Amino acid sequence: MILAGSRDASGPSEASLRQRSEGRVHLRAGLFGGTGCTRILDLAESGPSRLRFPRGEGGLEAVLVNTAGGVACGDTFTIAMDLEPGADVVLTTTAAEKIYRSDGPVSRIENRVVLAKGARLAWLPQETILFDRARVRRRFEADLADGAALLAVEIVAFGRAARGERITAGLFADAWRVRRAGRLVYADSLCLDGSISDLLARSAVGGGARACAILLDVSEGAEARLEEARALLKEAAVPAIEVAVSAWNGHLVIRALSDAVGPLRSLIARVLASYRDRPMPRVWQS
Predict the structure, then answer these.
(1) Could you say which DSSP state residue 286 is in?
(2) Is 278 among the domain residues?
């Protein structure tokens, strides 16, 4: 857990009066008859958040679309997913999610997934890009029944690389909580508040990194795949990327730091494709 400062200002009163985006999606998916195919059982959408479903066989691919074009100061976005026994779903996004600069208000992104026995979810959004002075709190919560499997990836770029942007002030708070059969098995919290680029320049924080990634596998066989994951990382190694993998308590975690998001994204995509033994979603390849 990395903490820097505690400021969480609400900003000028006039800022709080502006119109905010509130995007929400709720998907319930399950097996269709005896076909073994996963289908939509219920879908609710509101605000700028939409789910699109490219045609496929077997598992269900859901592509999240933010018609607002990004997350502005004070916006709220929520994703809720309920997967019934045996359901197989991949969640991804059409493009990188942009967190725009804020004049005070904090944006919030809340993600919650519930997986029944035998359900599988691959949470594979494309990267999140923080602009200078962006302020966002993000939370990911997962409740897994015994026999359910979660594979989740998040990539974050701190500043727009093409502009050589530094984050001179901002807030990025990210919390992960995963429970299996009601018991907390994974908890992770990150909080960068203030001059994020300066914080990341510290050797004990980011060592000069401008992007980070996490890959979390919570499944019955995850811990036993430690050596396999190490071999995949060694094969895909990029000199400018620091990466490590660990496994304990029934799950496996890969963490990576890079001075650029492009090579990091490519590394994660190559490792994921081999680790899942499936190609990445088509939107990742465009």
Answers:
(1) -
(2) no
Residue 280 lies in a domain: no
Quick one: how many helices (H) and strands (E) in the chain?
Answer: 4, 17
Domain count, the chain: 1
Domain of residue 179, residue span: 23-209
Task: Kindly report, residue by residue over 25-46, the tens digit of the pLDDT.
Answer: 999 999 988 778 999 999 999 9
Q: What is the pLDDT of residue 285?
A: 83
Q: Kindly state whether residue 155 falls inside one of the protein's structural domains.
A: yes
Token representation of residue 173: 């708070």
Show the tokens assigned to 164.
Answer: 């050589």
State pLDDT tens for residues 218-228: 999 999 999 99
Which tokens sit at 171? Answer: 């807030």
Q: Which run of H or of E encompasses 214?
A: strand 211-218
Token pair belonging to 122: 């691959």
Query: In angstroms, rounded to a whole number, what is the distance separating the alpha carbons of residues 90 and 8?
Result: 34
Q: Is the pLDDT of residue 266 over 50?
A: yes
| Rounded CA separation 61/276 (Å) | 15
Predicted pLDDT at 14: 55
Q: Nearest to residue 47, comparing CAs of 29, 33, 65?
A: 65
Please enumerate in sequence order all residues whose Cβ is within 8 A of that of 27, keeping only pairs 6 or more positions apart, or say none: 40, 42, 43, 51, 62, 80, 81, 82, 89
CA distance from start to end of the chain:
34
Q: Flag whether 215 is in a domain.
A: no
Q: Could you tell me the pTM of the whole model? A: 0.91
